[in-house]
Amino acid sequence: MTDSVTTGSVTHATIWRHRTPRTALLLWVFWAFMVGMFVWCWNLMTARTMWVFVYDAPRAAQDLFSRALPPRWEYLGQLWQPLWDTISIATLGTLLGIILAVPLAFMAASNTTPSRLVLRPFALFLIVATRSINSLIWALLLVSILGPGLLAGIIAIGFRSVGFIGKLLYEAIEETDINQIEAVTATGASKAQILNYGIVPQVLPTFYGISVFRWDINIRESAILGLVGAGGIGAQLQASLNVLAWPQVAVILLLILGTVLVSEWVSARVRAALI
Amino acid sequence: MTETAKPYPGQWRRPPQLVQSRMWRIILWTGAILYLVLAIGSVEVNWTRVMDGLERGQRFIGGFLQPDFTTRWRDISTGLMESLTMTFTSTVVGVALSVPIGLGAARNIAPRWIYLICRGIIAASRALQEIIVAIFFVALFGFGAFAGFLTLTFATIGFIGKLLAEDIEDIDESQSEAIRATGASWLQLVNYAVQPQVMPRLIGLSAYRFDINFRESAVIGIVGAGGIGGTLNTALSRYEYDSAGAILLIIIAIVMICEYASGHLRRLVK
């Protein structure tokens, strides 16, 4: 059987193919490039890897778990204060983030910005820049500047939250219903009154939703900020890791996991109630 | 006509938007204020240390404005190379592993027991933060980029696996029914009915995850998993704010390029 038949002047393939030869070739080149790139990157990355440790990993894992289990539950008593600190960092940090993000969001939204040419790009830049630096890096910086403690953690969480809350909030402001704003404007309302009665009621549910969502993420992040000295339960984790007290590490990790699950549940419930 | 007895209101009060009951509003507000007072009260601030810090803060801002790329360039470039290669390899391996796991975690094409196993893997990967996973992998595999690579791969599986599985569960069933009606095997079903429907989204998600993995690779170095994070940590603990400023600027620049490129790619394949 031949691969093609000719009816009149048109040649058809008798065998159906998923792709045209051209796409197939391009795909092949793409995959070859990816494989080459991967091998190159892999060699570079593992150039300094000590393979002895890697081959030793199963034994090390066994050793680690035999040390970590059973968890030292009595240690839990010393963890409530750091846990409270962690939740404080997350909550106060979220508040700081909100306080900084709300004006930025109103400046960045194209329908409420006071100046399109100067303030809007500036606000957008601040939103992108604070979002691209992880809270752990912020904490690293702030601990080195302000010294270890909760304050550095709160400011780190706050700065990281600014970009997140600001971005989602300004998108919500831009999506507000123009009819309601026009109705308020038609009563002769001033600019501030339009904001207060036309826009704020429309974005308020979204705003609460975003804040609770960010609070939930911040609980996760504040749990580990202590690793770089910013207080909370991560500081206990760091202390236990430094003395290789694996049973204590196990307790801390389980507590962090439990807290994260609870905060996720709370935030999901609150957001479901809001929408 | 009892209605007329009520005088026309001369004043308007904004109706409450969220909590209708007055009592609950009062309880919520008192609770919130009480919590805030307690929380702020428990924050101990060493003001003399903060005052000392302000001078350092100025030096840091100075270093940020006049970043020093040259003095530590060898460290910075090794860290950066490690971060980038780690990001690329872990995204590739992570996506490759999360495709079978995502297929297994889709209720409409996988048997129940496979579904439960794959969902379990995804849940475990999502519940643990990268940093904590990195601490473990560093303890098991030693310091360096390999531990970081494993951490990012593990995190990628949870992210892509979950979103891919949800996407597969949302596919147009009529197409897979048409393929099934031709007598196709399970593999052919996946290849000709599922894959064309989810491919654009998978490409978009992979690009997005590349972006996230780079950000994370800048962080997990702090606990010893290689990459630019380690370099940054060293620079800051030596109080070399000008080198730290340079590293941060490089991170921000690469994150912005990645974000722009992945956004562009996602619009392209949509």
UniProtKB/TrEMBL annotation, chain A:
It is found in: Cell membrane. This is Phosphonate ABC transporter, permease protein PhnE. NCBIfam families: PhnE. Its main location: membrane. Keywords: Cell membrane, Membrane, Transmembrane, Transmembrane helix, Transport. Residues 83-267 form the ABC transmembrane type-1 domain. InterPro entries: MetI-like, MetI-like_sf, PhnE/PtxC. Pfam families: BPD_transp_1. The chain crosses the membrane at residues 25-45, 87-110, 122-143, 222-239, 245-266. CDD domains: TM_PBP2. The gene is phnE. The keyword Nucleus does not apply. Gene3D superfamilies: MetI-like (1.10.3720.10). It is a multi-pass membrane protein.
TrEMBL record, chain B:
GO terms for molecular function: ABC-type phosphonate transporter activity. Gene3D superfamilies: MetI-like (1.10.3720.10). It is a multi-pass membrane protein. NCBIfam families: PhnE. InterPro entries: MetI-like, MetI-like_sf, PhnE/PtxC. Residues 80-262 form the ABC transmembrane type-1 domain. It comes from Szabonella alba. Keywords: Cell membrane, Membrane, Transmembrane, Transmembrane helix, Transport. This is Phosphonate ABC transporter, permease protein PhnE. Belongs to the binding-protein-dependent transport system permease family. GO terms for cellular component: plasma membrane. PANTHER family: ABC TRANSPORT SYSTEM PERMEASE PROTEIN P69, PHOSPHONATES TRANSPORT SYSTEM PERMEASE PROTEIN. It comes from the Bacteria. The chain crosses the membrane at residues 23-43, 88-110, 131-160, 243-262. It is found in: Cell membrane. PROSITE patterns: ABC_TM1 (PS50928). Its main location: membrane.
